[in-house]
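hiii so my PI (J.) wants the whole complex modelled not just the main chain, which honestly fair. so below is everything: two entries, each one labled with what it is. i double checked the lines twice but i was tired so who knows lol
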Amino acid sequence: MVKVTIDGIEIEVEEGTTILNAARQVGGDIVPPAMCYYSKLEGSGGKCRTCLVEVAAGSERDPRPMPKLMVSCSTQVQHGMVVKNLTSDRVKEARAGVTEFLLANHPLDCPVCDQAGECHLQDLGFENGKEGTRFEEEKRTFAPRDIGDKIKLHMNRCILCYRCVYTANQLTNKRVHGVLNRGDHAEISTYIEKALDNEFIGNVIDVCPVGALTDKTFRFKSRVWFLKPMNAHRDCPTCQGIATVWMFGNEIQRVTGRKDAYGEIETHNGKTAWLCNTCRFESKDVAQWTIEGPRVINRHSVISQGHYVLKNPLEDKSTVKNLK
Amino acid sequence: MGRKLLLEHADVPGIETFDVYRKHGGYRSVEKALKTMSPEEVVEEVKTATLKGRGGAGFPAGMKWSFIAKPEGVPRYLLCNADESEPGTFKDRYLMQYIPHLLIEGMIVSSYALGANQAYIYIRGEYMFVLRIVEKAIAEAYEKGFLGKNILGSGFDLDLSIAPGGGAYICGEETALIESLEGKRGNPRMKPPFPAVQGLWQCPTVVNNVETLATVVPIINMTAAEYTKIGTEQSKGTKLISAGGNVERGGVYEIELGLSVEEFIYGDEWCRGIKNGKKMKALVPGGSSVPILPAHLITKTANGDTRLMSYESLSDGGFASGSMLGSGGFIVFDEDQCIVRNTWNFARFYAHESCGQCSPCREGTGWMEKVLHRIETGKGNMRDIDLLADINKKIEGNTICPLGDAAAWPVAAAIRHFREEFEWHVTHPEEAVKRNYGMLKGVTA
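here's the output for the full assembly
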């Protein structure tokens, strides 16, 4: 076990734990946001740079601070490490910068986006972004495309977290889903517009932190905040059948995996409860499910009540100028 | 006349063939190393020579070699980074094109030092004609028994293969190079683990620049003690400089480190001054990614010392008043050149070459390119200049690989030293467009 201090809170974690996972064991506000890291996907992380933290002391043996900000999702803790997240102005500055970069080419079409209300980019923008934009250029655009008959890809909204690429790579044995082109023209694509046909490919929708991959059986049907998320399960020969069903009255509008506070599919019976396509897309009848009870969504998004509260203008002097 | 260690015989006719190269003392270092030295001794020799990596970062090669992990039963690899694509740098091409055997010789000795039995040369796709030359040289070396099984009866085996790249700048970053060599998309990996522990196919790997590996040959031949007599206190030996831009006589020169910058630009033996008798305006001393220097900081450092061609002198004063030796892509600008246009050109290159993996670099490089394009075409405003400086700060140090830094530095330095010129573009949009010499047709302010 190694001891690590994050924002003044001491915690003992196992050796080899990353800073982010150590912070998640503490929980609460000190957890750095992560747009690309997904603990259930091998190799994910390091790309979005939102989880940058300052390492004020490397370890007990070598207490020098690390000169650069480190990505907490793939930096392992050392004994005696001191990490600054919320308490570091450098981190706040860098994170605001990354948020601005991620939103630079983002279409900001939240009013028509199905992800709105449970979008990690909305949360990130709300928590770390600045008011207004400095990006005056024309945004790069792509046409929306179908990947298979159940999944829609809106490349405009994509933040290139690579989560879906890892999902597809780790679920299928062919490299059919990947990234084309370079730089800000990089795009998620399938091999020559090939449809993704795999029993579990619907999970790319669940891992997508933004509205780039959406469920075509649910698109434009409702807004997530009008729906009631319920824990439910069913007997499924393919997957564990553990899901959250999103209901409007007595009707199931959509089915997703059961996501934890960090938007990751929960582990049940020792395995990640990935949902199969049959459960996700074709089981929309209440009779097919055993409803367990309401699902609590406690950290992210507008569906978690009271999450988006306006800052008190009296406390925040940057918004109200010339306040005595 | 400075001493030449690498290009000594570069102008001998037929030096690209094995026989002529051998006649001029070629492959002596292989004989010496394999027959009289242990691998550890070779590493120690390179360490003593304090050979700094010639690819741009200047990391000591001997130190890099000593980091390589040596687990039992796991192969080790040596990779030669010949993906030279930094704008302004063309020294590796020259070396491979004219004396390919020097690189092969250096790679044999280096592989022996590292205990690698397989080595690769990763050449950028645009250098296909160079690839053919190197390919021919490798075939000759195999034929003469310098490559393959049991080289010179020493019991050391080495296979050397060439891998052509697809022409992406990012594949010159060592971990992206490894990914590309493995047949994947050339995205840089997260470090740690470093390639010396887990590199090519998760095996210990060393990646070195062409010139670094070639320099191993003279170090072994003349011993490190002799080699360190050349150069300055902290920069030893010679360096290939590819001079370009508005100089009278551009080209690849081998200089002893410690030559003064003034001598290199105006000396008869080297660049012979600025073309058409113009005045010098700015200098990029080490390839497009290093900070640009304004005229008053080129021949003298900020505190009045003579600026020398060496790692420490060029970076004297940090980024506030210095630059870097980098890869040796020496670009001189005369008084007619537009710094804003040049900065935009560099930014466009980095925006095009960013791999798109991490967000600051992907979005930041594209954003900077667009803003600079606007300023250059007379559509900018004053707040854009501060915006550029701020984007720079947000990219620098926050990316996976150094490409983000490389994209940020030239823009930051151009604004630092030539802010008036950016402001002039904003206040004189029509003249700014005219200054494009008709290169941007159809653009009106």
